[in-house]
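Can you give me the bound-state structure? Components:
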Amino acid sequence: AQSVTQPDIHITVSEGASLELRCNYSYGATPYLFWYVQSPGQGLQLLLKYFSGDTLVQGIKGFEAEFKRSQSSFNLRKPSVHWSDAAEYFCAVGGGATNKLIFGTGTLLAVQP
Amino acid sequence: DVKVTQSSRYLVKRTGEKVFLECVQDMDHENMFWYRQDPGLGLRLIYFSYDVKMKEKGDIPEGYSVSREKKERFSLILESASTNQTSMYLCASTRGSIGNEQFFGPGTRLTVL
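Here's the bound-state model for the whole set.
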């Protein structure tokens, strides 16, 4: 079955510390992978996406993610977290002509001073 | 920039009422989606549409219907609202070609009393 797992429901990091949010997927075909961010009370905004090619992709706001096919993972990273990064982060996998997505349950990030 | 708008940010309805949630996109996207978002469950697909007057059920269609009479507008209908439909509802749209990301509206927080 197709699925996305985000094992960390809630993460707290200190401002300036590095961040890694985990995402594992199960998908029968070549996956298209996405990370979205949702600030409080807002819709989802795309951070980055991976389709093919270089397995390390750069996104907005200083985020990057690495696709590891052997581990079925697509972890999101940021070298130095800012207080404004506090939000909920969703990993998603998709494919096919309709661009339907399967979302993970999200990771809520808190940033402490 | 792509813009996806939803008719209401907050909505309070009573059990048994018929509820309409409207979504409009301004980028001529072929595909449109309705999700509900609940804490700990992530985003779950209710219905999607890949063309005018075309629709497909998502993962949780029970209690909902949709209408797409014009390309830019996708409506979600709760025929008889129930308290278990209290949730955040998110609309999204995307181009029909493979691999395009979904663009999200700001969401409608619906409370059914």
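A couple of observations. The two ends of chain B are 37 Å apart (CA to CA). The mean pLDDT of chain B is 94.
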